[in-house]
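Why this split exists: single-chain examples teach little about how molecules sit against one another. For that reason, every record in the complexes split bundles all components of an assembly together and asks for one structure covering all of them. Below is a record exactly as it appears in the raw files.
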Amino acid sequence: MDDLLADFLTETNEGLAELDSALVKLERNPGDEAMLSLIFRLVHTIKGTCGFLGLPRLEKVAHAAENVLGKMRDRELQVTGDVITQVLAGVDRIKEIVTGIGATEAEPVGDDTALIAALNRVCLGEAAPAPKPVATAPVAAAPVIAEPVLAEPMIAAPIPVAAEAPPVIVPTAAVAEDPIPEAAPEAQAAAGAANAAAQTIRVGVDVLEDLMTLVSELVLTRNQLLQLARTQGDDGGDLGRFAVPLQRLSHITSDLQEGVMKTRMQPIGNAWNKLPRLVRDLARELSKKIELEMLGADTELDRQVLELIKDPLTHMVRNSADHGLETPQQRRAAGKPETGRITLNAFHEGGHIIIEISDDGAGLSVDRIKAKALANGLATESDLATMTDAQVQRFIMRAGFSTAAAITAVSGRGVGMDVVKTNIEQIGGTIDLKSTQGQGTTFTIKIPLTLAIVSALIVEAGGERFAVPQISVVELVRARTSEHGSIDSERTEPVVERINDTPVLRLRDQLLPLISLTDLLRLPAATTDAAEDAVYIVVTQIGGTTLGIIVDRVFDTEEIVVKPVAPILRHISMFSGNTILGDGSVIMILDPNGIARASGVGGGMEGRAGGRALSSGNATQGIGANDRMAMLLFRAGDQAPKAVPLGLIARLEDIDRDRIETSAGQPVTQYRGRLMPLVPMSGMLDMDRPRHAVLVFSDDERRHSGGAVADGGRCMGLVVDEIVDVVDEVLQVELTGNRPGLLGTAVIAGNATDVIDIGFYLTQAYADWFAQPQQALQAGANGKLARILVVEDSEFFRHMLVPSLSSAGFDVVAAHDAAHALRLHDAGEMFDAIVSDIEMPDMNGIAFVRSLRSKGRWSELPVIALTSHVAPEQIELGREAGFTDYVAKFERTALLASLHQCLAQHRAGDNANQITLAA
Amino acid sequence: MSVALAERPSLAERGQSDGPSTDEKVFVTLTVADQLCGVPALTVRDILGEQTITRIPMAPREIAGSLNLRGRIVTAVDLRRRLNLPEAPAGTKRMSVVAEQNGELYALLVDQVSEVVSLPMQSFERNPPTLPSPWADYSAGIFRLQGRLLVVLDTAQLLALAPEA
């Protein structure tokens, strides 16, 4: 039976039972207004619901009865026995019909005109004409006595029932022919009530909640007993005798826990049952063809969780239908079947429920999202250039991303996705999305089975134990702590390194930001055991970012009962609750989201409004560890040394104070026959200094190589206090650029050094620096802007490379690894050239180019290798693998020259794999 | 003068501040930094010996931590800190008085819980106006006992903890 109908029947049966006694009470005490309004409400509810469910016959009867009651309530009608009798007759008829529905799931056929007419007459104040003794039957039967079989509802109803429950109903049907019709409704009503009552009992949710709390206590007590038995039972004392009953108690407790949990469990289908209708309506409204597929609808989860995800789910399905799927015409054009498909899939995985909502629609348009993110000030162009597609797509879940007006026009999706995300995170869940342009989008929601009992990892820091919810733990890493900065790559165990006291960990060629739980919670440092310098790092995933939490020890996982913390402690965002462990001690449950926020990484990303916050969000990705590059060190403003990659700087100049002029409020200088804007690094130009050191950045190359030198290149001078040195260093950048203009911090020449984001200062001088001037367009094979794919695992280098190539007039797409690049290939992307790093995790540049050359549409493309090792045998290896050219990191001019050469050759159809050593 | 709590339940009342409406009231006496104090017996849910208390990082100073009372988590409030008194000497075995406030259980950490006494209201007085701040805030009045004074602690005030208090 339809759930909705079943609910209605249960509810209505309850209401009817109440009605009978209420009406009788009212008759005895006609002045009882409270009782009267209760009756009115009950009947009104029945009427309202059956209108909703499409039960016209029931609705009419209820409506007539309601009218009478309404008159009584408004004191237009005296409450008399006759009137009550008439209403009771109506109630009886309602009961009959409800019973019929309970048996057949459809309204029994019958004629209620007489009853309704009688009720209406009462309503108008006329005397009830029905003979008093038997209320029900005569009213209905009297006018149509000639055709009892048709007119008598009791007869019509049981016939279809007979098939279902013959022993009870068949005789009833037979009896119905009998001149005493009361027998039938009674028997039938009883049968129907029994039907509805036997299967379900309605229990208040608070009763279940109390039960759950009690069971939780019981589980804890059981755990304590077991612990006691383990620690003391061995010596064969009195406790030995308790072992068996204790074991039984333990089993019963487990069963009880399971049973009580079950009372709270509901199939997720309950949250879905309104969706088919919703999708159908949407499809009609939008003139789309949509098929909704629901898998795993019987997957059960806690009702509390269920209630909380209902709305987000509905919202997401609506989104998929509205924005995800294309119109039939568009789908035909894209070579897809006309009917779009939305698939809901729910399943259990490791104590969690995974819900996937996928569509086979157009997918998220990365370009549109980028444009939208730019327009809304969520990110800068250079931020976007370095982001992976997945990162860009996650923008749709950022607050402030979509505004109602822009949804369909620009982003194509994302009504309140940030709200969805917040709701899911509130119940300790996570949400992620995967989208392939042209193929569809999949949202994956991971939520705990229940909010009451969670699996948690018990850790220790600063002598205190804490529980970390298992849902956010990705892995555990054992690492050594070592002296500042000493890097010992011989040992296999990873080492916690420090950048200016900030701990980081190299984990599989990624820099993992670490936060010490001891420091974060301001705990006293653990008793330092010099010999034991090992720590554990709990790697947690919070949204799209990872964070390592340093703890002193790790115990095992335990099922814990989450209890809310006392009100006085609720403001401490680092804790999501507390619990009692098996040994009876109280411990706090850590909230990874709160920790991430408190430590300024990850979780804070979504919260902050400014576009620059992005850089810190990306921080976790870090950069490859072994990249050596030439850096220019200088000082500006404060004493902290600053650095910028030498390859980006065109020239260094020393400019006399007298040569600095002001134009439109901005300091400028005449430089090589042009005006060059000067941007003081410290914000203010110190005019007391006789001379200023200036780093000149220029986009000369793009003019010269672009062919059309219209007005010469543009320059920008960054004014600094002092140029310190040029160093060639292994760069380890911790990209925590919370400040604009700062990429991050690195240890260079033994000092913590700020690495400058040149892109920021360039746009200060020329807001359109990265915009591509018409005359500088680099024509690709098809005459359009040359499209370059940059494959680079290091976030830092992507950050450098992409703006630099964009400024030279290329259309640049960045991929964060070879696999990502190959996905772009599979998605049908086409480029004019590829620039790829050699050292990358999983699939290195050599393997990548081999795979490109072996097959596919990219097999003929020029591929330029970027590497820090320009050894002859390396180059030979690269050439054999299929690289067109080899360029040292980060030689901007050489790379541009190589690109032009490759593109020219490629255009000329000369695809011979020539090696031109540019480095 | 000490009586068992159970024998005189009718005399114990929650309100203890105003007027000699009844002759006597029952208090649980305790000491904190050598000051004798009393808590209305009926507000006391439990009296605990020394307990393992889990410290709570980042918590306000007067929160000593949490403890497990028969499966319920109880927040322990350090009375010395609440009253701005010097810390208890290291190694003191402190006891707690458990009281309920808005459905939450709190344990007041005190130096020593002594006995349950029934005190005549004639010996009750309001706070002397010169009583300094923390005491005046949390004291509901004073009982004149033989040889010493008993401060009636206002548990509702003591436990009205505000975040960042």
